Amino acid sequence: MTKRNGTSDRDDEQGIINAPWEKSFDRILTPFEMFIHRQTTGGMLLMLMAIVALVLANSEFAGLYQAWIKTPVSISVGGWVLEKTVQHWVNDGLMALFFFVVGLELKREILVGELALPRQAALPIFAAVGGMVVPILIYLLFNFSGDAVRGWGIPMATDIAFAIGALVLLAHRVPKALITFLVALAIVDDLGAVLVIALFYTEQLVLQSLVAAAVILALLVVFNLAGIRQPLPYFLLGILLWLALLKSGVHATLAGVLTAFTIPARPKYDPARFSQHVKELMARFDANHRPGKNIMTNVELRTVVQALENSVHKVGTPLQRLEHSMHMPVAFLVIPAFAFINAGIPIEFASMQATLTNPVTLGVMLGLVLGKFIGITAACWLALRLGIGQLPAHTRFSQIAGVALLAGIGFTMAIFIAELGFSGQPQHLLMAKTGILVASVLAGVAGFVWLWRA
Among the CATH numbers 1.10.10.10, 1.20.1530.10, 1.10.10.60, 3.40.50.150, which is that of 39-201+251-266+317-342+350-453? Predict the structure, then answer.
């Protein structure tokens, strides 16, 4: 039986009103658990949208699908016009939000996470570097000359959502520290990919726009140093930074990372000050509470509750709040949209053998599957032998090798780099995307089976 407002007449605890299904959402998750949950769910949605794109691209609707993603969309203000295709708006625009979240994660990990303590950070850093260098070398073995060389950065990138999603399926069989190790490795891997995009996948530079971008970035830093904690000024300048980089020749999505690194990571209140302030507010709350009266009819209680909410915001950091609030739209909207736009590759089964033996396809496939496995395991072995790093708690080296296989899942960032490297080269791009998809399936299955047996 329920009341007219939809709440239950019977509650487990006196004074608590639970709407239907509400208890299912009340379990408190740590920030890391929330991060893992969202990455896992986002990975599943990403996989679904990739499958939908593949089906469309190989169906009778393939022409409509290709025409839609190439549809021009423009924004105009007076005489100023910015026109791009749907695909470019997603890849250059929405993906800036993805890189913004990547930047927030990087900053948090460097300040207080797995990359904050040198000895703790050493092993995932070594692993990530090995997992970037060896795949590049393997790719270049197959593509050492010609236009195909431009794809050397493709197999270096790990897809954090897919990889973590696969590992979380084994959560009851692997230690939690192994998941943390994969997160740290993937974040360092993302940093490497960001640097490669910035340094090697840029078009002809426009000095005037670069100067404008530098001025905007300096203003963002000034905002941070001046103690501006509201996100709106950073977002407004972040949009201007994106526009400046769009015109500069440097890939515009890097505006997301640069803006993220200027977001304040200092709280307004320290824990002691917060505790004292909350006690004072609760004393006011108790003094003005009237049994049986609704808070809507008590102005003083509403004022205290609002003050409590403001205090909670001040004891947290803008960086944490933005990472928390941005993760869901990026995981559930931006990345699936990217997959839907970019994963639709036509599959010609009659020419599949020629496709799989193409140097670009082979370089990407072997770079992701073998390169990641060899690079990560060899780098970890070397770091452990030199005494530089240490295994995560309760883990074995065989489990690190399983994670190295999962790191070969290279969907989002790999396709992104492929789009940059092979812009205007549709045949190479098709081969690269085919290699990414095949490698991601092989790496995911092999890593899952390895860790299941390990």
Answer: 1.20.1530.10
